[in-house]
């Protein structure tokens, strides 16, 4: 489990830093900052969502941060899923706009959470 947490932490860090570097260079060359910023939500957020779901299945659902992260981020992905099937509910359609402001902070907080869990020596194996 500790090996998985370390791999997860480094993968999340590489995806975030790598994407920021690539998007910075690409936005200088192509001048498409807004396009790259929108892709940030799907690429980095997609990796974090996949990691979050795996951690839920291996027993991290009781952590307070995981509960808060799930309550704040999962409705945004649910709204995107409904929109992809052309199901429009007015209240749910507002969630992605809320996500524009909160997702970058949760992306950074999630990486710190992964770092703390990968270095936690008191964790049950």
Would you kindly provide a written description of the structure presented here, covering whatever features stand out?
With 125 residues, the protein is mostly helical. It has one domain. 82% of the residues lie in helices and 0% in strands. The chain is built from five helices and no strands. Helix 1 runs antiparallel to helix 2. The longest helix has 29 residues. It starts with a helix and ends in a 7-residue tail after the last helix.
Task: Give Rg in angstroms.
Answer: 16 Å
Outline the low-pLDDT stretches: none
- Major pleated sheet: none
Strand proportion = under 5%
How many structurally independent domains? Answer: 1
Number of β-strand runs: 0
Mean pLDDT: 83
Helix-residue proportion = over 70%
Shape: flat
Instruction: Give helix and strand order, one letter per element, not per position.
Output: HHHHH
Give the terminus-to-terminus CA distance: 6 Å
Q: Which structural class is indicated by helix and strand composition?
A: mainly alpha
| Tally of DSSP helical segments | 5
Brief summary of the model shown:
With 125 residues, this protein is mainly α. The chain has 5 helices and no strands.
Question: Layout of helices and strands, plus pairs?
Answer:
Layout (H helix, E strand, L loop, with lengths): L1 H29 L2 H25 L6 H21 L5 H4 L1 H24 L7
Helix pairs in contact: 1-2, 1-5, 2-5, 3-5
């Amino acid at each position: 489990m500790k090996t998985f947490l370390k791999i997860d932490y480094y993968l999340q860090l590489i995806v975030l830093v790598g994407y920021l570097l690539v998007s910075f260079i690409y936005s200088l060359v192509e001048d498409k900052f807004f396009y790259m910023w929108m892709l940030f939500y799907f690429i980095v957020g997609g990796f974090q969502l996949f990691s979050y779901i795996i951690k839920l299945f291996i027993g991290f659902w009781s952590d307070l941060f995981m509960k808060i992260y799930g309550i704040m981020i999962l409705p945004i992905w649910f709204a995107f899923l409904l929109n992809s099937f052309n199901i429009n509910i007015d209240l749910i359609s507002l969630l992605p706009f809320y996500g524009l402001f909160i997702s970058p902070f949760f992306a950074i907080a999630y990486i710190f959470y992964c770092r703390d869990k990968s270095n936690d020596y008191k964790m049950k194996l």
